[in-house]
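seq:
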Amino acid sequence: MVRRSYVEKCARDAEVDALRGLAPNSASTYVRCARQFLVHVDRPLAVVKRTDIEGYLHTLVNKAA
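struct:
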C-alpha cells in the first residue's frame, strides 16, 4: 500500500517541476488527477507499468459510460 505521504510528495514535486507556468486551475487539476492515479495503482511510480496506466484509463472510461 502506498502511503498518503508518498502521494503528497509526488504531488508537491509535480507542482514544483512539471506545472510551472500553467494557470492555477490547470495545475491543480493535473495534481488532483495524479493523486487519484497513485491511489488507484497503489504502488510507487518507479514500479508503475504501462498496463497500470491502461487499466486506470479503462476504469475512467467505464465510469463515464
